[in-house]
């Protein structure tokens, strides 16, 4: 937990430096106080330690998105079986049918993720703390939409990320 806490503080420090240029660095202190005040409650701690459904949905979506596009290459390397291979063996289906079913599973977990986001009691866990989970899942969706852009980027993922983070449109 200490490592995660330190990393989070480092992120806050970086954000504060960026916002200082716009005279908005006070927002970081507000976010820290508000977020940690809510996390410090027993209910928040219990929520975090009981595998929150929003986090489970995010992990499954990310894992399955990766499996859809990288399972063949991973099998060539001798990696562990992916969700696609497991589904094919368990249900005795071809790769195409497994892909269709897994895309349906991903879609259902997106519904679960969104539902859980709005269902979580904001007095226990602030929405600000849930957004990284949502955003990580969005990034996974982006990176694995048409290709395994993380491993084999044809569209130069580094440039795309730079455009989003360094030179945003807004």
From TrEMBL:
Record's keyword annotation contains Metal-binding: yes
Entry-linked Gene3D superfamilies: Farnesyl Diphosphate Synthase
Keywords assigned: Metal-binding
Keyword Nucleus: no
Domain of life: Eukaryota
All copies of domain Terpene synthase metal-binding, residue ranges: 39-112
Name of protein: Probable sesquiterpene synthase
Source species of the chain: Solanum pennellii (Tomato)
Gene: LOC107005336
């Amino acid at each position: 937990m200490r490592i995660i806490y330190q990393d989070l503080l480092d992120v806050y420090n970086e954000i504060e430096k960026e916002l200082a240029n716009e005279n908005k660095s006070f927002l970081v202190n507000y976010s820290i106080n508000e977020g940690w005040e809510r996390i410090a409650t027993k209910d928040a701690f219990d929520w975090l330690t009981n595998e929150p459904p929003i986090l489970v949905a995010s992990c499954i979506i990310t894992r399955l998105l990766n499996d859809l596009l990288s399972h063949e290459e991973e099998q060539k390397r001798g990696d562990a079986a992916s969700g696609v291979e497991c589904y094919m063996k368990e249900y005795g289906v071809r790769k195409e049918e497994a892909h269709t079913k897994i895309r349906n599973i991903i879609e259902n977990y997106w519904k679960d993720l969104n539902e859980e986001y709005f269902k979580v009691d904001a007095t226990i866990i602030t929405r600000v703390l849930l957004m990284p989970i949502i955003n990580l899942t969005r990034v996974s969706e982006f990176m694995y939409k048409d290709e395994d852009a993380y491993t084999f980027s044809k569209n130069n993922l580094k440039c795309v990320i730079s455009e989003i983070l360094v030179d945003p449109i807004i």
